[in-house]
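If you are new to this repository, start here. Below is one unmodified record pulled from the training split, so you can see the exact layout before writing a loader.
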Amino acid sequence: MNLHWTVERLDEDEDADPGIALDCVLTIQGRIEVEGEKAGQLFVWYLTADKLDSRRAFAELWDLDGDICGVYEDISNPGHKKFREPLPRLLKDAPGLLVVDFIALRPAFRRKGLGLEILREVVRCCADHRIGALLLDARPLQRRPGGYDEFDEEIRELPWNDGEKDQDRLMHHCRGWGMQRLPRTRFMVCAPDVITGERAGAWPPAPIADDWDVEDEEDEEDDLPF
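And here is the target side for that same chain:
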């Protein structure tokens, strides 16, 4: 199993090295390959913020993208005045979140134990020393908005059972990986070290997209995810 990454930066602090920046938002997309076949894709957000004791922690970062704002709305209490789980306690000693928005596998590659293997590779490649918590959106793929590229129709053909029961089953499966539900949300949460003790060394996992020149793009064409 191989993952091929592309990375895009969303925050406006372009002068700060994202490897050391206190406030940073990246989108990280991956193409999943198994024995040379396209098996699926995944999407991850990387967020770090300073001053976790502040109610405004991450506030400017959440507003950079509508989907990221949706994460904020789900993990905060009604009225969005505080988080369901206080950030300093959730993130403990590291000020960053790695949010796995989805792992989409084509039906032929499901039920083969790839989910945990992929999540371990996500942590190994994308969770550096600043990530204190890993969030995983546990909504079933067929219950989500589309956007899974050329195999979108295959995802739509997955069984449409009761949505809440499907989500409960998926969350129960993730508990077997050591994750716990973030109360009253669609997210499972754990420390990255629960998934694997190996943190990202060469970070980010691919060049920032905006930093690529034409020659780089040509050289890396085979490694682009979609």
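Two things worth knowing about this chain: The domain at 2-220 is CATH 3.40.630 (Aminopeptidase). The CA atoms of residues 142 and 161 lie 10 Å apart.
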